[in-house]
From TrEMBL:
Residues 163-262 form the Pyrroline-5-carboxylate reductase dimerisation domain. This is Late competence protein ComER. InterPro entries: 6-PGluconate_DH-like_C_sf, NAD(P)-bd_dom_sf, P5C_Rdtase_cat_N, P5CR-like_CS, P5CR_dimer, Pyrroline-COOH_reductase. Residues 4-97 form the Pyrroline-5-carboxylate reductase catalytic N-terminal domain. It comes from Pontibacillus salicampi. Belongs to the pyrroline-5-carboxylate reductase family. Pfam families: F420_oxidored (PF03807), P5CR_dimer (PF14748). It comes from the Bacteria.
Length: 273
């Protein structure tokens, strides 16, 4: 199989690095294209056997699986340019949530799927969210699922939970990174611990926490019960969290869904033109 990536920004690059490290494909089976030639050349320097296509159309001519890693509002004009270069045996894969696979199927003659990645995929872990269009063959679906298993846990989802699933899997690392940084900063503000010390401790705690969850030693609630001794220090800290968090996460999901709805409205306006 020949793989192609249009758009080698942050997520496109993360996927390429994960694929090649996991052995999803050989370098010579990967074709890339990017609006900025500098980003493509950087990848070419690191992976000398990959192919940098002259343009998006020529890339589409040469690949079996084509990942579209561009911003949502750039997808429609891109597909308008390359649609004539696609055929039913190929599979086009979008990584962005606002475009439903059914909408993409109306724009191209090939098979269509969506795979929403996570930055955790760079460590060959975490979840990839999969949604398949009606034209995807059983053989193509099986090949994609097996390929994704090499660098993440594939989870097929329904269109109705796309946004919230992406909030957890794709946005979640950024959300919790922000909270963790605030925790570290507060520890430094309130005590004599240094930022380096607090960061090192927090990093190891998170690795240990993730390992406990992965190995199934505790659930989230049972872990809290084990650590939070009645009348102890942890209990005092939990009380503050209960008081201060309020409906913060409810508001977070409301905000991301509002943005999602705005993106979908803008996409719909594009499709009607």
């Amino acid at each position: 199989m020949k793989w192609g990536v249009i758009g080698t920004g942050n997520m496109g690059r993360i996927l390429i690095e994960a694929w090649l490290e996991a052995g999803v494909m050989e370098q010579q089976d990967l074709y890339i294209s990017n609006r900025s030639a500098h980003k493509s050349s950087q990848l070419k320097e690191r992976f000398p056997d990959i192919h940098v296509a002259a343009d998006n159309a020529s890339l589409a001519d040469q690949v079996d699986i084509l990942f579209i890693c561009v911003k949502p509002l750039d997808i429609h004009p891109l597909l308008s340019d390359i649609s004539n270069h696609l055929h039913h045996q190929q599979c086009l894969i979008s990584i962005t949530s606002p475009y439903a696979v059914e909408e993409l199927e109306d724009l191209v003659p090939c098979q269509v799927a969506r795979i929403i990645p996570s930055i955790t995929n760079r460590a060959l872990t975490g979840v990839s969210l999969l949604t398949f269009g009606k034209r995807v063959s059983p053989i193509m679906k099986g090949f994609i699922e097996q390929s994704v298993k090499l660098y993440s846990v594939p989870l097929e989802i329904d269109e109705t939970i796309t946004r919230v699933s992406s909030d957890i899997v794709s946005c979640g690392p950024a959300f919790f990174s922000y909270l963790i940084q605030q925790f570290i900063d507060a520890a430094c503000d309130e005590t004599l611990i240094t930022k380096d010390e607090a960061t090192a401790m927090m990093t190891e705690m998170l690795i240990g926490f993730g390992t406990l969850m992965k190995q199934g030693h505790y659930t989230l609630s049972s872990l809290q019960e084990k650590v939070c001794v009645k009348g102890g220090v942890t209990g005092e800290g939990i009380q503050i969290l209960e008081q201060e968090l309020g409906d913060m996460f409810n508001q977070l999901f409301q905000k991301t869904h509002d943005k999602y709805a705005e993106d979908k409205r803008e996409i719909s306006a594009q499709l009607k033109v």
